[in-house]
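Example for tutorial group B:
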C-alpha cells in the first residue's frame, strides 16, 4: 500500500509539473512575441485558417488584410483593398484562397499571388458563408434573396427565397451535411438543406422567447456548438441570447446581457462547458448548462469581433483601436493577459 501511495504521489507531481510547464510556455510564447497585430485605425475581423496555422485579420484605414503565421510567429503578408468589406471567408485549408464581400456590391477573390478576380452582385450583401461540402458561397442580401455562387462551376445559381424579412446573418452546422441557418430582422432563423432550394426544412421563431417585449427582434449572430451538433446559439440586437436544441422548439437557455447592446460574437470554450459572449463593450462568460454568469469584463474600447483558436484556451479580440488584444481563458474561467 505504501509503495502504491508513493507511486501515485509521484505521478501526480509529474503531471502537475507538466501542466505548470505547459502554461508557462504558452504565456511566454504569446506575451513575449514580437508580432505586431496592430492596424492604422482599427481591426474589424479576425479568423483562423482551417489548418490552425494562420490568422487572417481585416482592418482599416485604409482597408487592408494581414496574414499572421502562428507557427513561426511572423507576418506572412499584408494586402490593401480598393474598398471596405462587410465580411470575408477563408475558402481553402490555409491562407491561399480568400473571398471578400465588399461594401460596393462586389465579391473579390484572392489567391496565393494576391488579387485574382472580382464579380458584382445585384443587391448589397450583408453576410457571407462558404459551404465546403458543395463548394458554394451563400450571400444573404439586403432584400429577400440569398445569392448562391458555385465556385466549382464558376457561376451564380438560383437564389434562395423564403419570406420578405431582411436577412442579417448566417451560420453553418458541419455535423449534418452542413445545414445552413439564416437569421432575419423578424427574429426568425430559417434552416436550409443545401440540396433543397425550394424552401427551408424548418425554422425557429426566436422572437417568441425574448424577455423584452416590444424591443428590436433583429438577429445579430448565429453560432453552432462545435462539440454538440444539436446546439445553436442565437444572439439578438437587444442583447439577448437564446440557446436552442434544433430538435426542439423551446430554448434551453434564454438570457440577456446587462447593457442590452447588440450581441456580436458567441463562442464555446475548449471544454465545451462555458460560453463566451461579446458585445461592443463587454465580454461575459456563462455556464452552458445553467446560463449563470461566472465572469464579466468591461472594455474601454469598442469590441468588433471574437476569434477562438482551435484546441486551446486562446482568444483574439479585434478592437476599434490600433492594437488588438490576446487572451487566454482557462477551463475554469480563469483569464490571463486581461489588459482592457
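The residue assignment follows.
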Amino acid at each position: 500500500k505504501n509503495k502504491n501511495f508513493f507511486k501515485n504521489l509521484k505521478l501526480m507531481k509529474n503531471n502537475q509539473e507538466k501542466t505548470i510547464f505547459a502554461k508557462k510556455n504558452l504565456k511566454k510564447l504569446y506575451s513575449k512575441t514580437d508580432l505586431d497585430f496592430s492596424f492604422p485605425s482599427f481591426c474589424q475581423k479576425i479568423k483562423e485558417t482551417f489548418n490552425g496555422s494562420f490568422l487572417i485579420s481585416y482592418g482599416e484605414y485604409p482597408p487592408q488584410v494581414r496574414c499572421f503565421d502562428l507557427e513561426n510567429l511572423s507576418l506572412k503578408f499584408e494586402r490593401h483593398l480598393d474598398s471596405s468589406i462587410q465580411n470575408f471567408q477563408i475558402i481553402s485549408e490555409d491562407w491561399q484562397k480568400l473571398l471578400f464581400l465588399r461594401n460596393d456590391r462586389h465579391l473579390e477573390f484572392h489567391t496565393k499571388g494576391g488579387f485574382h478576380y472580382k464579380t458584382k452582385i445585384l443587391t448589397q450583401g450583408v453576410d457571407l458563408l462558404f459551404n465546403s461540402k458543395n463548394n458554394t458561397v451563400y450571400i444573404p442580401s439586403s432584400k429577400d434573396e440569398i445569392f448562391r455562387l458555385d465556385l466549382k462551376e464558376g457561376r451564380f445559381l438560383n437564389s434562395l427565397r423564403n419570406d420578405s424579412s431582411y436577412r442579417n446573418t448566417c451560420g453553418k452546422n458541419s455535423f449534418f451535411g452542413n445545414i445552413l441557418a439564416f437569421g432575419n430582422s423578424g427574429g426568425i432563423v430559417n434552416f436550409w438543406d443545401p440540396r433543397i432550394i425550394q424552401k427551408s426544412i424548418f425554422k425557429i421563431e426566436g422572437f417568441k422567447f425574448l424577455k423584452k417585449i416590444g424591443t428590436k427582434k433583429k438577429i445579430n449572430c448565429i453560432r453552432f456548438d462545435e462539440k454538440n451538433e444539436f446546439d445553436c446559439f442565437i444572439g439578438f440586437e437587444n442583447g439577448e441570447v437564446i440557446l436552442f436544441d434544433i430538435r426542439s422548439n423551446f430554448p434551453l437557455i434564454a438570457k440577456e446581457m446587462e447593457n442590452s447592446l447588440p450581441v456580436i460574437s458567441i463562442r464555446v470554450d475548449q471544454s465545451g462547458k462555458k460560453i463566451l459572449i461579446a458585445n461592443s463593450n463587454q465580454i461575459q462568460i456563462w455556464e452552458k448548462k445553467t446560463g449563470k454568469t461566472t465572469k464579466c469584463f468591461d472594455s474601454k474600447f469598442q469590441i468588433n469581433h471574437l476569434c477562438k483558436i482551435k484546441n486551446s484556451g486562446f482568444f483574439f479580440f479585434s478592437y476599434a483601436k490600433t492594437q488588438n488584444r490576446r487572451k487566454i481563458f482557462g477551463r475554469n474561467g480563469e483569464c490571463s493577459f486581461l489588459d482592457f
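The first strand starts at residue 42 and ends at 48. Compare this with the pattern of hydrophobic and polar residues in the output above.
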